[in-house]
Amino acid sequence: MAGVRQPEPGGVTADGGVDVRRQKRKMRVLLWLLLCADLLDGAVGYLTVTIEPLPPVVVGETVTLKCNFKTDGRLREIVWYRVTDGGTIKQKIFTYDAMFNTNYSHMEDYRRREDLVYQSTVRLPEVRISDNGPYECHVGIYDRATREKVVLASGNVFLTVMSPPNNISVVAENTPAPFSRYQAQNFTLVCTAKGGKPAPSVYFKRDGELIEVISYTQSPGGEQGAGSAGVRGARPLISRDLDDTKLQRSLSLLNPEGRSSRLHTETPDRGHTQGQQAHQPSPTTEVIPETVVSREFPRWVHSTDPLYYFSHAHLPQSDGSVVVQARLTWTLNPQLDNDALFSCEVKHPALSMPMQTEVTLAAPKGPKLLMSPPRAKVGDTVRITVQGFQNEVFPEPLFTWTRVGGRLLDGSAEREGKELVLERVPAELNGSMYRCTAQNPLGSTDTHTRLIVFENPSMMKNTQNPNNGASQMDMLGLTWAALVLTVTVELT
């Protein structure tokens, strides 16, 4: 029919849109590109690298670094790197050269600890804290197309090295310190754990029981806000000392009704409500220890359930370990805390069981004094030294020396230290009495020793020789005088 265009074989009309032949040309181009990509991939080959994650290890253990790779190409080399400084520096530690089938370490001879287990596996014996960090494995294969270029792929793993604490200790803070008879004082134990990585957890026990603590972060002497857990200030003694002469002074701390005044550091629910009968001195209960009669203990009137305050600090070290310092602070009660056993325990993932160190709070008892020389003579230098105690004392005591009834040889009223030195003792010190006061926050004790000074024969000889010489000169003078007198008489 005139005016109607017949469609071409395999095509569509102009009104239908796209020509089928154009679609076929596009399909040919796409198949050609896919074929080229497949040929290119066959020339280069494939390479994948994976590394298995490592569990945390303990210092001294052996670690195996495994580099798993898959490829259909020809291996060129495998290189292990240690990554430092946040990934900015990569240090070669081991290389396997497939071309020459050789391997070598890049570390210094004295630090060469790497061993090749397989071509891609390296073993690190006796790891150290410094080995902690990321590692990378780089694998290279030859390019199939050029046989000159090397195709690289890599994987990474993080080695976590743990170190258990190697030292823990407990000391008393701010010691040596004197004993306070009339005012309670805060007492702090400091537990230090060194060498741990990561930081260990530290806690305190008293007589084997875990102590319930109140954690705080501010310094003990800082301001305390409402609701904050700060360290309580020292509270005054509200009963009397064992010494009867101090009764009136101690009773002045009671209110007119005989009750102890409420202290600003006590909360209402922890205030004392006992009557006067509980605070009056009872002669039947005031027994001074017979072993050391000069040992003094105050009669503290505190709650038997003190509040313990706990804080800790982490101090990073250059070797990667962390020093942990834990502090336990409470208001000391010498009557209850004397002979109490406090332990510091440290838990760490590298330890199968906690580490522990312990101390027993104890006031000094009966210092043992040693005098040297044992038989002091006039002019000798005498040393009186504290050799020890009848018990184990903690914390470290403070030693004070005084002379009974006078001043020390150098003119001072007292001296501190474990040793008193008297230089060139004169005969006047014979029979003098010296007092050594040993005290710590839990108690005080006095020990006396008498100095016996013997005559010094050598000094007596030296003092006699000038007198003998003078008498001889006098006799000689008298003789000459008699001769002169005789001559004079004969001449006249």
Instruction: Please mark out the parts with pLDDT under 50 across 5 or more consecutive residues, or reply none.
Output: 1-5, 219-294, 478-492
Helix coverage percent: 10-25%
What proportion strand?
35-45%
Cα-based radius of gyration, to the nearest Å: 45 Å
Detailed description of the structure:
β9 (133-142) and β10 (150-159) form a beta hairpin. The protein has 5 helices and 29 strands. With 492 residues, the chain is of the alpha+beta class. The longest helix is centred in the C-terminal third of the chain and has 35 residues, at 457-491. It has helices at residues 20-44, 247-251, 276-279, 334-337, 457-491; strands at 47-51, 57-58, 63-71, 75-84, 89-97, 102-105, 115-118, 121-124, 133-142, 150-159, 161-162, 167-172, 186-196, 201-206, 209-210, 213-215, 308-316, 322-331, 341-347, 355-360, 368-372, 376-377, 382-388, 398-403, 414-416, 419-422, 433-440, 443-450, 453-454. The chain is elongated, with a radius of gyration of 45 Å. It is 15% helix and 35% strand. The strands form 8 sheets. The chain has a 5-stranded antiparallel beta sheet with strand order 6-5-4-9-10, with no helix packed on it. A 5-stranded mixed beta sheet has the order 12-13-18-17-16, with no helix packed on it. The protein has a 4-stranded antiparallel beta sheet with strand order 1-3-8-7, with no helix packed on it.
